[in-house]
Amino acid sequence: MSVLPDNPHDQLLDQNVNPRHWPKLPYRESYDFIAIGGGTAGLVSTGGAAMLGASVALIERERLGGDCLVTGCVPSKALIHAVNSVHQARHLNELGIKTGSIEVDFPAVMENLRQQRAKISYDDSALSVTDRGIELLHGTAQFTSPNTIELNGETIRFKRAMICTGSRPRIPEVPGLKEIQPLTSDTVFNLTELPPRLAVIGTGPIGCELGQSFARLGSKVTLIGTRDRVLPHDDLAAGKILAEEFTKDGIELRLNAKTERVSKSESGYKIEGNSDGTPWEIEVDKILVATGRLPNIESLNLEAAGVAYTEHGVTVDDYQRTSNKRVYAAGDISGQEKFTHAAYAYAEYATLNALAPLRMFKSSKRHIPYSTYTSPEVAHIGPTWEELQSRIESLDCYSEKFTSVDRSKIEGAALGFAKIYTERGKDKIVAATIVGQQAGELIGHISLGLTANAGLEKLGLTVFPYPTRSEVVRKAADQYMFRKVTPLAKRMAKAWFRLMK
Ligand SMILES: Cc1cc2nc3c(=O)[nH]c(=O)nc-3n(C[C@H](O)[C@H](O)[C@H](O)COP(=O)(O)OP(=O)(O)OC[C@H]3O[C@@H](n4cnc5c(N)ncnc54)[C@H](O)[C@@H]3O)c2cc1C
Ligand SMILES: NC(=O)c1ccc[n+]([C@@H]2O[C@H](COP(=O)([O-])OP(=O)(O)OC[C@H]3O[C@@H](n4cnc5c(N)ncnc54)[C@H](O)[C@@H]3O)[C@@H](O)[C@H]2O)c1
């Protein structure tokens, strides 16, 4: 995780969240609750534990706020906001609004990103954390026994501990790649010059969000993925729509591709690879690697604590408890969904389970949506597209396109669809995918429906303001009513019409 130290915004960020600025406290011998890692999961769990009145310590080795604040959601969405704005500006002529030529001042875009990130850092700052009664300890923690941690040479006992150490970018074993130190999500937000030619390896959420962003800011982007489509874990149709948009953005797609070798060239870097066996070679100025994440388990000495783990992270049960009954885990480290809101939701339950006399809060009861903030956005909740396909016989699917939504048509943003899957013949929602503008906002309706146990009947009866994009959800739900209720209603109405005088 790195930030530039030589600008006022990053200095402010650093001041707020870097532990080296905190006063060094004498450690207590023992705490009721210790969290290792001060990202979303660590902040949420220690905040909750302190609120319950426990003696609480939060150990962080680098910066509070973790990935989300420093190198993840916050900087990427600040960048995407600029990207969406420039894209809209380029299309204002279509609305009869005359603009001069639109120019991107990349250093200024990145400066704004750093400024927004610094502003948000107050929420995760040392001041805000200590105000909640949490003791902040600086350093790399490691377990020394099932109920002790060593920090900076001192031993601290705990009654309950929470592992929240997150994840880091995975660099694939491609000859020459590690040696050239490619950009990753840890370093890409430090750029101050737009790379004229950028290769992005990986077509998951990071590759797609950042690949499209750099293309719309003016880089010549080549997006390289091993799979046959972009966002391969999502709905097939979503990947197709997105690939078409990427092509319009000038992105060159190299799918079904194997990156074989990377080397320095005269003007930058050479990448050699093949797609479906056909060899290719490209020259670029920068390479961004976005090929998944590795859990930060190495420094923890989990064996000493009897905490089981795999290559995906620390193993937890439905209560977020590890194989050590005093130790819980949440966030990217626990091998579950890698999203900030998932870290938040699971850390909340983990803390309650860790500190209450009985474990009562099951993570499987929570519904975790997600959205990839490309243009159009791709949002989903429930089992993956592949899982849904494997049990499609037992499901019904109701879908609606944004072309039937007036607000989307008016604004010329009618690309995409909503699909809601239910149990066959019933209105119980199983999953949903929304592709389109603000899909990330719209999937919240389905998330609420799932949490409140409200099926398509209730969604269809819900009145949404006209004209809003939310109508896509209501219209998809209406189809259930039409299919299920209308034939019976028609028969009853016909009987009544015969009797009606
Ligand atoms: C580019 C990018 C964009 C993203 N966009 C989104 C998005 O739009 N929406 C979304 O929901 N999610 C997004 N994510 C994912 C999200 O950032 C993560 O899921 C989330 O930050 C995980 O939180 P965490 O608390 O588990 O871990 P982290 O935030 O990684 O925090 C872990 C902390 O633990 C510390 N640590 C590690 N080991 C030790 C140790 N031994 N001792 C002490 N401290 C230690 C680290 O320094 C770090 O501060 C994005 C991620 C990336 C990379
Ligand atoms: N909007 C969001 O919520 C958001 C945004 C960004 C990241 N994230 C989180 O961060 C996580 C990590 O994102 P990510 O995109 O790095 O990982 P990912 O695992 O989701 O996607 C990585 C992609 O890279 C491909 N790949 C792997 N090795 C490759 C290689 N050698 N060459 C080419 N392609 C290769 C994989 O097939 C996969 O499709 C995500 O799973 C997500 O949970 C969330």
TrEMBL record:
Domain Pyridine nucleotide-disulphide oxidoreductase dimerisation: 368-476
Pfam family, one: Pyr_redox_2
Database matches in Gene3D superfamilies: 3.30.390.30, FAD/NAD(P)-binding domain
The UniProt record lists the keyword NADP: yes
Intrachain S-S bonds: 68-73
Top-level taxon in the UniProt lineage: Bacteria
Positions that bind FAD: 77, 165-167, 332
Co-factor binding comment: Binds 1 FAD per subunit.
Domain FAD/NAD(P)-binding: 32-345
Single GO molecular function: flavin adenine dinucleotide binding
UniProt: NAD(+) binding residues: 202-209, 292
UniProtKB keywords: Disulfide bond, FAD, Flavoprotein, NAD, NADP, Nucleotide-binding, Oxidoreductase, Redox-active center
Cofactor(s) required, per the database record: FAD
Record-annotated membrane-spanning stretches: none
Protein family according to the UniProt entry: Belongs to the class-I pyridine nucleotide-disulfide oxidoreductase family.
Protein name as catalogued: FAD-dependent oxidoreductase
Organism whose genome encodes this protein: Pelagicoccus mobilis
